[in-house]
Structure formats: C-alpha cells, structure tokens
Amino acid sequence: MCRWFVGAVVTVLVALLVAADAVAQRASERRVANPGETQFDVQLLRPSGGPVVPIFEGWFRNLDGTFELSFGFFNVNTEEVIEVPLGPENFVEPVEFHGMQPTRFEPVPDRDRRHVGAFTVTVPADFGDRDVVWTIRSKEQTLSVPGRLTSSAYELAGWDFPGRTTLSPLVRWIEDGPSGRGPRGIVAEAVEVKAGTPVELNAWISRDDVAAEDERPINVKWFKHQGSGEVTFAERTTSVERDVWSAEGGAKVATAVTFAEPGEYLLRFLAFNVIREFEFQCCWTNAYLPVTVTP
C-alpha cells in the first residue's frame, strides 16, 4: 500500500476520532437542561411559567492551589420571580459543596436575562475530573449542570484579569476589616435583626493600588440570595464615583433593609465595574451577609 495512501487514511481516522471525542464531550455536558438543551435561547422567554436554568460559567485557579467553579442562572421569565428553597428541589452534589447556591431567581432587565457568577464552589487542588452538579426543579422541570475542571475552554481569568483597569473592586464588611474580591468574594459574620424593623447595612468598596488609576465608577447592587420571606431594600442599586471610592478606607455604601418574616437569610452584595465586562467573566466581586431574623 502506498505511503501517501496510508498517511491519508491515518489523517482521516485521527480527524474522525477528534470529532467523535468532541461530540462525546458535548454530549456529556448536556445536563444543563433537558436533553439537547445546553444553552438558553431568547425564544424561551415568556412573562411567566418558565423554569430556572442553572449555568456553569467556568473555573479559575486560586492562589492557594485550589480551584473555583463559578455558577450562574437564567430565569426564562421576563416578569416572574421564582423561589426554590435549598433541599430536594435545589441542591448541589457532592453534598459537601451544597449550601451557597441562590434560592431566589429574578429576571434581569437586560438582553441576556441571566445572572452571571451568582456563587462559586471551592474544590481542592487534586479534584481531578470529578463533577460538581447543581440541580434545580422549577415549573415541573428538573434541570442540572455539571461544573468541571477538565476543559481548558472553561478556564476563567478569575479576579486577576489581565490589565491595570479591569480588576474586580475590593469589598469589606467592616471598614478596617479584611477585604475580598472576585466571584468567590467574602462572607461576613452573621448578624441578627428583628422582622419588620428596618436596619442599616453597610459595606465598603475601593480598588487596590494596581487599579487605582481606574476612573470608572463602581456600581453596586443588593440581592436576597437565600431566605423564605420578603426582603425590601430602601436603596438597592447605586453608582459610586472615583472621588468617593478612592478616599482613604474606600467608600461606604449603605442601605436600609426590612425583613418581613423571621428565618435564616443570606444577602448578596454585588460590586462591579460595567455590565459589559460580565461577558468576559470580569470584573465583579460577590460579598455575602448571613442574617438571622427574629420575631
């Protein structure tokens, strides 16, 4: 048999094997929705009655050698807010990674209608090819998505995005306390408040020395991340200009919040540069505040 013919056959076989492997990889990732529904589609949008789609954003490396798996979600409804409490209809497996996922799923007013990087899961350096799977059951549909480290295409820059002006804002829950940044962010010590009584919540935002010349404002938004009762924020969104956040200690961001019912809650404080940068998985910071609400 001619050498050129053998070479051609080998080339074709390799191409077929690569293609088959790509198909198998895609098939293995089709747990994000119903069979074949790996991505959301604007045609799915409706005022109400649709489900929540969990989304795996990707992974990034932490400085300590561990990895972070980032998850977001897509509420296909343009008007309906969906609440799914932690438990058999909203869980993360393996069980040791369960607990930080949201239970309140809002529509968003922009064209993407999704919430990017709502929480992360930290996995050890030797996690290998295992999956962390987030499952949500809503509107009689059970949808799940695996988070995994096996594809370099899903590697994110994390908080240290290249460039002097694209780093995530720093967030502190105490003015002179520790800071956090990036999707993993920082979790505050739990606080206790009374139901029906407005209470002031404070956070401090700034940039570090690397991005100190960034002239853009830092935008912030508060969310009820978990909890069964209604939560009302007096001022939910704001934009902080450079001359404020660059002051010593950063800028204090305050809002009054009222919890309608007793229970355990988790609030999320989001600090971000500009919305379009979410497309590049940069640059924002999550900060979480556990709240115990008493009668």
Task: Tell me what you see in this structure.
- There is one protein chain.
- This protein is mainly beta and 295 residues long.
- The protein folds into two domains: 42-154, Immunoglobulin-like; 170-294, Immunoglobulin-like.
- Helix content is 10%, strand content 39%.
- Strands 11, 12, 14, 16, 18 and 19 form a six-stranded mixed β-sheet that branches.
- β9 (170-172) and β10 (179-180) form a beta hairpin.
In total, how many beta strands?
19
From the alpha carbons, calculate the radius of gyration and give it in angstroms.
21 Å
CATH C-level label of the largest domain: Mainly Beta
In the CATH classification, which architecture of the largest domain applies? Sandwich
Order of helices and strands: HEEEEEEEEEEEEEEEEHEEE
Largest sheet, in brief, is: 6 strands, mixed
Low-confidence stretches: 1-39
Mean pLDDT: 82
Helix percent reads 10-25%
Share of residues in strands: 35-45%
Number of helices: 2
Number of domains: 2
- Helix/sheet category: mainly beta
